[in-house]
C-alpha cells in the first residue's frame, strides 16, 4: 500500500512510499482510509516522538471498513468510520481497535470526520476535566487552531461564556460566529476574570492569563506551542488557589468520537477546515501548519 512516511530530506519531512499492509489483531478492523488530518504535534518538523525515518505517522483518519474484526466485534464491511490511533493514519489502509473508532452518521462526510479525533477529543476531554458548567467563563488560548475552534464551540454548548485568545486579529476572524463572546490578543483585554483556562500555548502568555483567572480557577494544559517557560510572579498569585491539570486525548475513544460525530450531524458543532488538499501535497501543507498559516484543521484526501 501507499503511505506518507517520515523522510527528513523531503519537503515538510514527508514523502509517499510503498510500505507493507498492516496486519490487524483479533479486535481490529482494517479500514480503507479516505481522508486523514495533520496535527502540529505529530509533524516531523515539530519534534514528534514518532518522527523516525521511514515510519508511518497519523493520529486521525476516516474511511470504510474493508475487513471486520476477526473476533466479530465492531462494525462490519462497508461501514463508514472515524478512527483514532497513535500511528498509521497517513496510509491507504489502517488497522484500528474497535474501541478507537465510531460509525459515522450519514450526514458527516469523511473530510470533516477526519478532522475530529485528536482536536475534538482534546477539547472535549479538557472541558470535561475542568468541570465546565453553565455560567463559567472559559478562556481558550490558541483559539484559531483545530483544538481551539472545537473548544470555543463545545464550551459555548455547555453554557459557558468564552474568551478566545489569538496571536493576531486576523487569526481571530470567525471565532465570534463559533461562540466566542470576546476575541483578544492579550489577556489585559479580558474584561472579567475567567474561571477556566484551556491552554495550548504556555510561556509568558499563560503567565499573564493567570493574573486574569479567578482565585479558585482551573487551568487545563493541553500543549505548550510557544516552547517557552511560563514565568510566574508569586506575589501576584499569592491569594489564588489555582488547580493545574492535564488530560489524555486518546484511549477508549469510541463513545467520545460518536458523540462528536453526532454533534456535527446535528449541526451543533462546526468543523473548521482551513486547508483541504490531496495527500500528494502533504509536505507543503505540513510546512504551512508549522508556520501557523492554517486556521482550523488541515485535511488530506487520498487519491
Automatic annotation (TrEMBL):
Residues 9-300 form the Enoyl reductase (ER) domain. PANTHER family: QUINONE OXIDOREDUCTASE PIG3, QUINONE OXIDOREDUCTASE PIG3-RELATED. This is Zinc-binding dehydrogenase. Keywords: NADP, Oxidoreductase. Signal peptide: none annotated. It comes from Streptomyces actinomycinicus. One of its GO terms (molecular function) is oxidoreductase activity, acting on NAD(P)H. It comes from the Bacteria. It holds the Pfam family ADH_zinc_N. The lineage of its organism: Bacteria, Bacillati, Actinomycetota, Actinomycetes, Kitasatosporales.
